[in-house]
UniProtKB/TrEMBL annotation:
<dbReference type="Pfam" id="PF13938">
    <property type="entry name" value="DUF4213"/>
</dbReference>
<dbReference type="Pfam" id="PF04016">
    <property type="entry name" value="DUF364"/>
</dbReference>
<dbReference type="InterPro" id="IPR025251">
    <property type="entry name" value="DUF4213"/>
</dbReference>
<feature type="domain" description="DUF4213">
    <location>
        <begin position="28"/>
        <end position="110"/>
    </location>
</feature>
<feature type="domain" description="Putative heavy-metal chelation">
    <location>
        <begin position="129"/>
        <end position="227"/>
    </location>
</feature>
<protein>
    <recommendedName>
        <fullName>DUF364 domain-containing protein</fullName>
    </recommendedName>
</protein>
<dbReference type="InterPro" id="IPR007161">
    <property type="entry name" value="DUF364"/>
</dbReference>
Length: 244
């Protein structure tokens, strides 16, 4: 099994949601995790994908907007054939590309664990729109275009926080830096799962205020339920919902 070389030395995050997720996956999968190999890694313009030797795959949003140019990846060519437990550690890196690979690996392992121990996974058939009431103030971190008109049919109080400029926005759109001001007044928070890889998820969750519902949305979201049970929050999370 090849050794991972030339990985950029970056500070690792020790507290928060991703460390809890990595620790939980390692605990539940046990020694078997060291025997699982990374079969393939693809970094695309939109998503980063990881395929494991057991043919389980996972994706995470590729954080291209974190860079002004084309970054060099020192670990290119050394990930294939590495053990999944080593690549999973990338989720703790503060380098956005390494973190995306780690989150994609966590997603792949979550899918595997879902099949091995389905009782650990709570499934709900609730639609995200069923969580929203006409009087609710909804804040969406990340632009989910198909959802916007559907939410606006329920409530006009929708604000989008987005790093990129949105052409022809249908509702109030503000830069993501306004999160500290806007999120505490929300009733429903919809967070893009890309906030995991770009290291902003825990901070955004700390701005929750009295929000009744917090939704982690997008293909980067891990299936593993410990993500919501262990996330820091101003109040206890009473229920974890995972769409079926």
């Amino acid at each position: 099994m090849p050794e991972i070389k030339n990985i950029q030395e970056t500070e690792k995050e020790e507290n928060g949601t991703l460390p809890a997720l990595v620790t939980a996956l390692k605990k539940d999968l046990g020694p078997a995790l060291e025997e699982i190999e990374v079969k393939d890694v693809r970094i695309g313009l939109a998503y980063t994908g990881v395929l494991l030797s057991e043919n389980y795959g996972g994706v995470a949003c590729t954080p291209l907007y974190e860079f002004s140019g084309c970054p060099a990846l020192g670990f290119a060519g050394f990930l294939k054939g590495s053990s999944a437990d080593k690549v999973l550690e990338f989720a703790l890196s503060r380098n956005p590309f390494e973190a995306a690979i780690g989150v994609a690996t966590a997603n792949a392992l979550s899918h595997m664990l879902h099949d091995l121990e389905p009782k650990k996974f709570s499934v709900s058939k609730i639609d995200i729109l069923d969580l929203i009431k006409p009087e609710d103030r909804v804040v969406m971190v990340g632009y989910f275009a198909p959802l916007v008109p559907r939410i606006l049919k329920i409530t006009e109080k929708l604000t989008i926080l987005e790093k990129r400029e949105i052409e022809f926005p249908e509702t109030t759109t503000l830069p993501s830096e306004k999160a500290r001001e806007i999120l505490p007044a929300s009733d429903v928070m919809i967070l893009s799962a890309s906030t995991l890889a770009n290291r902003t998820f825990d901070e955004l969750l700390s701005f929750r205020g009295a929000a009744r519902e917090v939704v982690l949305l997008g293909p980067s979201a891990p299936l593993y339920p410990c993500l919501l049970y262990t996330s820091p929050s101003p109040r206890d999370v009473e229920e974890s919902r995972m769409p079926s």
